[in-house]
Amino acid sequence: MTGKTGEKSAGGSGTQVVHRTARLLKAIAGREQGSTAAELAAATGLTRPTVHRLLTGLAAEGLVDRSAETGTWQLGPELYVLGAVAAHRYPIRELAGPSLRRLAEATGESAFLSARRGPETVCLARVEGAFPIRSHVLYEGLRLPLGVASAGLAILAHLPEDEVERVLAAGAQARAEWGPLHTPERIRELLADVRRQGYAVNPGMIVEGSWGMAAAVFDATGRPVYALSLTGIEPRFAGERRALLGRALLAEAHRLSRELGHR
């Protein structure tokens, strides 16, 4: 994350404006309930005048929208249009939809699709299960460092070891923001579990009592590019049921990987 001092020294080039705008849009997308300008400044490292200037320009183009009731900023309608057009090139949500529905219906838990984007995962889709008590840690648009939450663990475990070590070294500060349990040592233990049993388990490391499980989805080249996950309260992920959930995740992840061309 670029600090305010770095922002001032970077100059006002067109490329820098693009980077700042992208950072701002990602920050807006990362909070389901919307964000104030002050919160966006803190999240992006940009000064508040810069955030206000960018928001004004984005709002004029319909790319962001401000709630009249709360004053918070959210993604705008024009981004929905652009996303709908782009979705034809990246049909993963449509491909994953049946798997998410089957997982939610079979388990009663909330099912999610996440994608790897560089050193992060971003949640793309969810289907709520029937069980009335839910975990609300994960939602569409949320970005998490690799190694945080079950989807990031599932993907990270299937990367080459040298790449895993680079991710762990570079993302230590970002992971720490999601809780003190995300140490390299603990993450390596969880990655070893993934490699042994095939699926990842997040044992309440972000919010106590809120558990998650995930299985990696591979593209035609064999890279782990997506993950299917389930989240819920700890008692629903205990004992023999955990193994049942793991098998369900692996079955749907394998099915989706085959649809993406992985053999």
UniProtKB/TrEMBL annotation:
SUPFAM superfamilies found in the cross-reference section:
GAF domain-like, Winged helix' DNA-binding domain
Q: Which residues form a coiled coil?
A: none
GO molecular function list: DNA binding; DNA-binding transcription factor activity
Q: Which residues form the IclR-ED domain?
A: 78-262
Q: Which InterPro entries match?
A: GAF-like_dom_sf (IPR029016), HTH_MetabolicPath_Reg (IPR050707), Tscrpt_reg_IclR_C (IPR014757), Tscrpt_reg_IclR_N (IPR005471), WH-like_DNA-bd_sf (IPR036388), WH_DNA-bd_sf (IPR036390)
One GO BP annotation here? negative regulation of DNA-templated transcription
Provide the transmembrane region boundaries: none
**Domain named HTH iclR-type: which ranges?**
15-77
Give a Pfam family name. Answer: IclR_C
What does the UniProt keyword field contain? DNA-binding, Transcription, Transcription regulation
The molecule here is called IclR-family regulatory protein
